[in-house]
Amino acid sequence: MIKMDLLKRAFKVIISISVLTGIWQLTVLSGRFEKSLLPSPAGVFAGMSGLIKDGTLFTNLGVSLARFLTGYLTAVITGVTLGLLLGWNKSVWSYIEPVVQVLRPVSPIAWFPFIVLWFGIGDAPAVVTIFIAAFYPILLSTVSGVRNVDAVYLKVADNFGIRQPQLLFRIILPAAFPLIANGLHIALGSARVFLVAGEMIGAQSGLGFMIINARNSLRSDLVLAGIIFIGILGLLLDRLIRFLENRIKRKWGVSAEVRD
Amino acid sequence: MYISIVEAYREYSVEDRGRMAALERVNLEIGKGEFICLLGPSGCGKTTLLNLIAGFDRPTSGFVRINGETVTGPSENRITIFQNYGLLPWRTVLRNVELELEARKTDKKERRRIAEEYTELVGLSAYKNHYPSQLSGGMQQRVALARALAVDPEILLMDEPFGALDAMTRMSMQDEIERIWREKKKTIIFVTHDIEEAVFLADRIVIMTSFPGKVKSVIDVPLARKRDRTGADFLKIRDRVFAEFELKTDDEPEYYL
Fold first, then answer.
1. CB distance A159–B74 less than 8 Å?
2. CA nearest to A136, candidates A144, A146, A126, A147
3. Does the interface ipTM go beyond 0.95?
4. CB distance B151–A160 less than 8 Å?
5. CA torsion A122→A71→A87→B75, rounded to 10°?
């Protein structure tokens, strides 16, 4: 049964990609767009296999992933830690919340001028961009996770003589974890969007740089190849975290699975 | 007496309506090893009274004294069991039962031994590595019971513990708690709104009425254990309780002695 299901899904994926490629090819064949404006599927495919064969893809992919992980994990650690403290301390949070609410909707791209001034070029701007994008969802979901811990858990802890810091690690953090995991998922989504953007300023490597570099040498086929790789990478990251999130939720007894 | 509740009064301030009494002055003495049921409709202050004894809440005036000491906060000597169990869903049955022992920093082996012992006592050994979400409501409440007993408190406070269970499971849980009470000789204060449950379990039933919440009367239940839910004596006391709540119509023929 599962095998059939998988086959059916694979079939649908193939159909949808073939139709899209077909339309694309027809548009190219119509001859109304110049080659540098709209590369052909064959050209992009050649570009993709070229990037794979000469290793450019994997070097840049590795660099990008390392930056992504650095920025994302830093955001996880700081966001969860601050979220636990601020969620627990309602009065401090009431002072900090307005600031967070103003800063949160600001796209990390708006910070670019300052990011370059403060962090220069190289890895740092990309890492900082990802950090900014991931930090707020993690912070906010942790705060709300802590504040929504079922009162009965706190009563039980109180009754059983569980005090800080045990209270935090044994009760509050695990109780808030499903909401925190949800925040981590949202953060991953918003951070990966900015993975490439951060590498378009001042970086000399990475997937974002690969695209900028291709644009500068007017290789639109390589630009598109890069875009496709980024899409695939994003999809894989999303599937990975969804898998982890569902495992956590199952263990915590939250029955609703996270789906598309 | 072991537990003395003296002139305990609790009021809350309610927006727009000023102060409202949740519990009128209560005086109640409870002996060690007694099984007491607080019985009444919602709003009668039975949970408020239980929370005062548990130490989750303080009386506005008056006091609760246990063993001569005034209650100022929760203690491991009186463990509360909640209607919605309060189990930690990320811990297995055994790890839930171990919770307090961990906080007390009991040796790991000893902890496991005690947890196994109490899991066995409530008949859940086969499920010791399950998570709460994998268990039925009745089984979850058994875990909560094992977790409370593992602390070895003198007093068990139970806040409508079987309220979320179906009638059949409920009766088997009543049998279970009675057996454990006799075996472990705990003092139990049990909140319920189920008259039969109170008559089946209690040495004394504290009858409470609402708006404002207060103790109306205390009824002795001098029936031998284990009680027969269909016996004539049982029904007689049940009818007395019905009468206390004015739920019994007077023209009913009195066919019992």
1. yes
2. A144
3. no
4. yes
5. -130
Partners of residue B75 in chain A, C-beta under 8 Å: 159, 161
Question: Who among A160, A163, A166 is closest to B76 (CB)?
Answer: A160
Instruction: Please provide the CATH number assigned to the domain covering A44-251.
Output: 1.10.3720.10
Q: At what angle do helices A220-251 and A41-53 cross, to 10 degrees?
A: 70
Is the omega angle on the peptide bond into residue A53 within 30 degrees of 0, that is, cis? no
Average of per-residue pLDDT values in chain B = 89
Distance between CA B148 and CA B171 in Å, rounded?
Answer: 20
Q: Give contacts of B 89-128 with A, CB under 8 A.
A: 89-90, 99-100, 102-104
User: What is the secondary structure of chain A as a DSSP string?
Assistant: -HHHHHHHHHHHHHHHHHHHHHHHHHHHHTT-S-TTTS--HHHHHHHHHHHHHTSHHHHHHHHHHHHHHHHHHHHHHHHHHHHHHHHH-HHHHHHHHHHHHHHTTS-GGGGHHHHHHHH-SSHHHHHHHHHHHHHHHHHHHHHHHHHTS-HHHHHHHHHTT--TTHIIIIIIHHHHHHHHHHHHHHHHHHHHHHHHHHTTSS-SSSHHHHHHHHHHTT-HHHHHHHHHHHHHHHHHHHHHHHHHHHHHHHHTT--PPP--
Chain A with chain B: Cβ pairs closer than 8 A: 59
Residue-wise pLDDT tens for chain B (257 aa)? 789 999 999 988 888 778 888 888 999 999 999 999 999 988 888 999 999 999 999 999 999 999 989 999 999 999 999 988 899 988 999 999 999 888 888 888 999 999 999 999 988 999 999 999 889 989 999 999 999 999 999 999 999 999 888 999 999 999 999 999 999 899 999 999 999 999 999 999 999 988 888 899 999 999 998 899 999 999 999 999 999 888 766 555 556 55
Q: Which of B56, B100, B132 sits opposite A161 (nearest CB)?
A: B100
- Look at the block and give the residue holding tokens 């992933």: A65
A38/A29 Cα distance (integer angstroms)? 11
- Whether residues B89 and A252 touch (CB distance < 8 A) is answered with yes
Point out the residue among A160, A174, A255 whose CB comes nearest to the CB of B100. Answer: A160
With left for phi above 0 and alpha for psi between -120 and 50, is residue B132 left, alpha or beta?
Answer: alpha
What is the DSSP code string of B124-179? Answer: -GGGTTS-GGGS-HHHHHHHHHHHHHHT--SEEEEESTTTTS-HHHHHHHHHHHHH
The residues spanned by each domain of chain A are 1-32, 44-251
Cis-peptide into B153, omega within 30 deg: no
Closest alpha carbon within chain B to A178: B90
| 3-state SS track over A76-116 | HHHHHHHHHHHHHCHHHHHHHHHHHHHHCCCCHHHHHHHHH
Nearest to B88 among A153, A161, A255 (CB): A153
CB within 8 Å: B103 and A158 = no
